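Database export, one record per block. Field names are fixed; values are copied verbatim from the stored entry.
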Amino acid sequence: MALKGKRQTEKNRSIFQSMGHAWHGLREVFKTERNFRYHLLITIPTIAVGFILDLNLMEWIVILGCIAAVLGAEILNSAIERLADLAANGKYHPLIKQAKDIAASGVLITAAFSAVIGLLIFGSKLF
């Protein structure tokens, strides 16, 4: 767990401590990242439509894998942006802009391919 009032300087002592930090990070990205919340919001109708269309096991695996990939990409993008902002120390630098743009493009590619996969799976059930 996150240490209250203290900063951790050593490695995590247990899997539970590691998981506590991960949950803290997930709460942080949810609170601070609008695009993460948008992606999360899109998962609700996606899952609902999956139940309505009675997806088979393999279709669920692919859909849930796409959801996890998009959310994971958004989390990694947010982490890269924070580190880049720290490295830039509040100043503009063209390499920092490139790093942030490239990280964002990873989310774009992941989301776009996930949307195509969703259209293929859902479309095959509808048409």
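Remark 1: Helices lie at 15-32, 34-52, 57-88, 94-126.
Remark 2: The two ends are 49 Å apart (CA to CA).
End of record.
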